[in-house]
Amino acid sequence: MAADPKPKPSRLGRGLSALIGEVEGATSYEPSAEGTAKSKTEASTLSIRDIRPNPQQPRRHFDEAQLAELAESIRTKGVLQAILVRPDPKDGSKYQIIAGERRWRAAKQAGLDEIPATIRNMDELELLEIGIIENVQRTDLNPIEEAEAYGALMKRFGRTQEGLAESVGKSRAHIANTIRLLNLSDTARTHLREGRISAGHARAALGAADPDAVVAMTVQKGLSVRDVESLVKKTKTEGSMSAIGKRVQAGDKDVDTEALEADLSRALGLNVDIRHKENGGELRIKYRDLEQLDELCRRLTAKRGL
After folding, report:
1. Cα R_g (the chain), whole angstroms
2. Cα dist. 90→51, 73, 93 in Å?
3. Residues 162, 11: contact at Cβ < 8 Å?
4. Angstrom distances, CA of residue 102 to CA of 72, 113, 115, 185, 277
5. What is the pLDDT of residues 181-214, one digit of tens each?
6. Whole-number Å distance between alpha carbons of 239 and 250
7. Which of 14, 60, 167, 215 has the most CB atoms around it within 10 Å of its CB?
8. What is the mean pLDDT of residues 78-101?
9. How many CA atoms lie within 13 A of 130 on its CB side?
10. What value does the mean pLDDT take over residues 162-184?
11. Domains in the chain and their CATH numbers?
12. Average pLDDT over the chain, rounded to an integer
């Protein structure tokens, strides 16, 4: 009889999966008489005023409408899940949030004076890593926040892409593609952070010699990811972004037309100009000399046997 296969190891960093599970399971709150944590796995009730957010929290944006909804739920049902905190390294009488800042903010908004919390001692690496894991697993980070968090783990703590993939439960390719977003300018990062472009748009734009120009046109024209990919491809085969940008921004041609021109130009070996009009349009093929014209005629008539 074959032996049972060994269970696969957790993809989270060692001990971090247990920490998250510990918070998820802490739904019964019985504070001790002294108001401190009864054990490592039980929640205490702490004063909201004694709790401070983590300055290294990867998540920077909290949706106000969602916070208001959570605050209303807390008013009627209370906080159903303890937050995770550690003693504040700068003030031992206070606590710093490890996981659960959104619940803490909503509890404050709901007017609560106290909140259930599990207290754990944790170093800076664990603090940053579990903050990333909590948010990434709940898809709470926007792409730039996620990229900046991974970058911090690599720069400050020497983590490799393989190690990050193991810790946060993502593929190495996902980590690599996300970290690429750190090559964006501040302006492009703002567009991505505020949802005017997607991570797919941003990654496609990074393939251009001038990503900022591509991003600017993407925002202005509302281009799809496929449009951006076609535009970047055209800049590599048909000249500078500025020349293409002038035509597209003037509204003469859309990106699909530009891409079609590029495809035909490659197939024929000649410059192709497509002109759309109200009723139909024109296809112009430019040749340099009679030899090119003869070759074009040969290609156009070859299949018909003329």
Report:
1. 28
2. 12, 33, 9
3. no
4. 13, 16, 12, 29, 54
5. 999 999 999 999 888 999 999 999 999 888 988 8
6. 17
7. 215
8. 86
9. 28
10. 88
11. 16-129 (3.90.1530.10)
12. 75
Q: Give the position of tokens 């505020």.
A: 194
| CA 277 – CA 83 distance, rounded (Å) | 62
**CA 136 – CA 133 distance, rounded (Å):** 5
Query: What sign for the dihedral angle of Cα 201, 204, 210, 214?
Result: negative
- How much is the pLDDT for 60? 64
Q: How many residues does the chain have?
A: 306
Q: Strand, helix or coil at 114?
A: strand
* First CA to last CA distance, the chain: 75
Q: For residues 95 and 52, is the Cβ–Cβ distance under 8 A?
A: yes
One-letter amino acid for residue 306 of the chain? L
Q: Please count the other Cβ atoms lying within 10 Å of the Cβ belonging to residue 133.
A: 24
Contacts of 91 (CB under 8 A, 6+ apart): none
For residue 45 the two structure tokens come to: 């009730």
Mean per-residue pLDDT, 104-123: 89
Percent of the chain with pLDDT strictly greater than 70:
71
DSSP conformation letters of 119-176 = E----HHHHHHHHHHHHHHTT-S-HHHHHHHHHHHHHHH---HHHHHHHHT--HHHHH
Q: Are 8 and 72 in contact (CB under 8 A)?
A: no
Q: Which residues lie closer than 8 Å to 55 by C-beta, 6 or more apart? A: none
Long-range contact set of residues 241-246: C-beta below 8 Å, sequence gap at least 24: 241/208, 241/209, 241/210, 241/213, 241/214, 242/213, 245/213, 245/217
- For residues 178 and 147, the answer to whether their CB atoms sit within 8 Å is yes
pLDDT at 58: 61
Active site residues: 101
Distance CA 149, CA 145 (A): 6
Using 50, 70 and 90 to split pLDDT, how confident is the model at 233? confident
Read off the amino acid at residue 73: S
